[in-house]
User: Which sequence fits this backbone?
């Protein structure tokens, strides 16, 4: 049995950091606006979106894509310091910045997710190898229970190990006491269901 963990709420920190990157890009572009054409300005915003996608994932980068369009329009498109657009050609620029920002951020987030999945698979393989090695070295039932408890706790959080006693009921093993509440009743019910299923398969 596993002791349930509390689920953490989504952190607003990635969105705050994404919002902080884009004003920094805006300051840089504003400082060199006399030397940078609109294409270079858009590329700098796009670079900020890609970096946000790589470090913080898809949703913060989507937010950064939308915010980059707003900042570019507000500071660098005539009339300045408004969200009005008098030159219709800029609508294509906005669409390109938003579309490419969303597309590239999605690709960058996908690459990061694949890298994370590969790392998790490697960690799982190393965990199974360590578990097999420790189980092979265990020389008693208590040692087996201790090995199982240690590895389950490391992988999933605090765990309670139960063994089937002489009376056919689950009893605690390892360092953690067996719970005497609803969790124990659920575990016993699951054990009875498993036994019933085996009997039905045998018939």
Assistant:
């Amino acid at each position: 049995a596993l002791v349930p963990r509390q689920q953490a709420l989504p952190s607003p920190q990635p969105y705050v950091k994404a919002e902080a990157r884009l004003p920094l890009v805006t300051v840089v572009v504003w400082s060199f606006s006399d030397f940078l054409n609109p294409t270079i300005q858009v590329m700098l915003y796009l670079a900020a979106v890609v970096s946000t996608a790589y470090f913080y994932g898809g949703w913060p980068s989507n937010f950064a894509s939308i915010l980059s369009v707003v900042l570019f329009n507000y500071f660098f498109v005539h009339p300045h310091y408004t969200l009005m657009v008098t030159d219709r050609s800029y609508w294509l620029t906005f669409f390109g910045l938003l579309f490419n920002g969303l597309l590239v951020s999605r690709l960058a987030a996908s690459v990061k997710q694949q890298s994370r999945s590969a790392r998790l698979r490697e960690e799982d393989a190393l965990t199974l190898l360590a578990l097999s090695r420790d189980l092979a070295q265990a020389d008693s039932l208590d040692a087996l229970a201790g090995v199982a408890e240690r590895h389950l706790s490391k992988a999933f959080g605090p765990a309670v190990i139960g063994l089937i006693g002489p009376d056919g009921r689950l009893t605690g093993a390892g360092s953690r006491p067996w719970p005497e509440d609803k969790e124990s009743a659920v575990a016993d019910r699951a054990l009875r269901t498993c036994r019933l299923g085996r009997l039905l398969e045998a018939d």
Remarks:
- The radius of gyration is 28 Å.
